[in-house]
Please model this.
Amino acid sequence: MNTVIRIAFTARWRSPVHVGGADLLDRAIMGPSEALRYMHEHFHHKSGPLYWSAFNLCHSAIRGEVRTEQARPHFVAACAEEDARHHLHY
Model:
């Protein structure tokens, strides 16, 4: 038996998360699908509990398994950790 998994690529947060490089928050991440893409393309460190928490909750949100807003603070925390790790190397 085949099962269709619906993916909500257009799911949005109530307010965007602003991210960027060099202390310039010039990009707005509007929801969990964009967050996953951003983590894949811009995170140098794809590891650690904050990264995996954000990754898993964003996936769960686009699959409709958790409320979309549940993923947002985890993405913010993962971004903060990535930024801190990045600054440690300079």
